[in-house]
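Request from the bench team (R.T.):
"We need a structural guess for the complex before ordering more NAP. Sequence and SMILES attached. Just send the tokens back."

Command: build protein-NAP structure.
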Amino acid sequence: MGFLKLKLDIIQPNQNLLLPNHSHLVSLSSHLNQSSKLFPNYPTNCYKITSTSSTLGTQKFAVRAVIATQPPSPVEMGKAIRVHELGGPEVLKWEDVEIGEPKEGEIRVKNKAIGLNFIDVYFRKGVYKAATLPFTPGMEACGVVTAVGPGLTGRQVGDLVAYAGVPMGSYSEEQILPADKVVPVPESIDPVIAASVMLKGMTAQFLLRRCFKVEPGQTILVHAAAGGVGSLLCQWGNALGATVIGTVSTKEKAAQAKEDGAHHVILYKEEDFVARVNEITSGNGVHVVYDSVGKDTFEGSLACLKLRGCMVSFGQSSGTPDPLPLSAIAAKSLFLTRPTLMHYNVTRDELLAAAGEVFANISSGVLRVRVNHTYPLSEAPRAHADLEDRRTTGSVVLIP
Ligand SMILES: NC(=O)c1ccc[n+]([C@@H]2O[C@H](COP(=O)([O-])OP(=O)(O)OC[C@H]3O[C@@H](n4cnc5c(N)ncnc54)[C@H](OP(=O)(O)O)[C@@H]3O)[C@@H](O)[C@H]2O)c1
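Reply to R.T.: structure attached below.
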């Protein structure tokens, strides 16, 4: 710690004194007191100076103070997964990283649990382009606030918060986040559940409640019905009063989808799902298809829709669907949309409403979040391999 004399201007008692960054006050001229240090979280130290003598009034004084300069606080370090080159699960590297301090409008969060999502695979492989290389993947987590940026109100150290979406980087022990992107987690919700349901649950929310608003009596088709999003779509779709048809690859997954409220389950690797949907709906087709599988199912999904039905293509786990001519949707006056959660949670109000509805549905028992797989964060490569190889069901969570 080095010492230097502060070049103080004339100040008067009761004036706030701002010292340079990483400095603090160690002594003052006589007749003056440091009454309080203001704003302890503010990086520039700020003191209120008061007079020790009642006779001094508001007279101005030239004061000399000695301040000790402290070296900048050691850079916060932690461990995170980083991707230096695009590729298979093996490109996920467990490394030391600089976490840093939150700036204005930001908070630092120590993650308790991190949700794994198929979008993390797209970024790792380069299907979606990350803004930089290297990058830390991950778009969903729940953790405790460990620092708040200067002047920030509304968030405190110790708060339990969760987030989903941008900025990417949740595969980290600790991370810096914009404060307006996190939501408080109700006490009744376990952090692991919160981490596993923020992105997937809010996806189910916007798909069923806003993108195509499901009404009682409608029939919906959900592909990959035992997956993270699929499991929630089945439960929530059923609760909304829809007849739910799910597709899955194995008998074990079929049993889970049934438990989750799918009225009919089709093994789409063995059965022709278009023919089966036709049979189940007596040739009428479904009102909406929620298709996250993409390439392998897209064309068949269109064939499953009734007149004026809605095709919601919201993912491509099997690959990007081929381009289609307008005539493909003209044949039945179909609606086609390719929605993204970020475009449905643009404002803070939208984010809070979506998360609030998900948490409320968990509390009331409408949603039973299946955290079927947990891995240490350092073993993210194994978790990615399992997700891509279709070995997982429900939500997958990484624990730092
Ligand atoms: N648009 C958005 O805003 C948004 C938001 C969240 C998620 N999503 C999308 O929703 C989908 C589900 O995400 P999730 O994280 O919950 O993953 P998930 O559904 O748990 O896992 C993907 C599932 O897709 C099925 N699948 C079919 N063909 C596949 C193939 N060739 N390779 C791998 N899987 C295949 C598998 O189920 P079966 O074995 O039963 O076939 C697999 O378990 C993803 O496509 C994701 O991109 C989109």
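Two things stood out. The longest strand covers residues 106-116. The pocket of NAP is lined by residues 117-119, 199-200, 203, 224, 226-230, 248-249, 253, 292-293, 296, 314-318, 339-341, 387-388, 390, 392 (CB under 6 Å).
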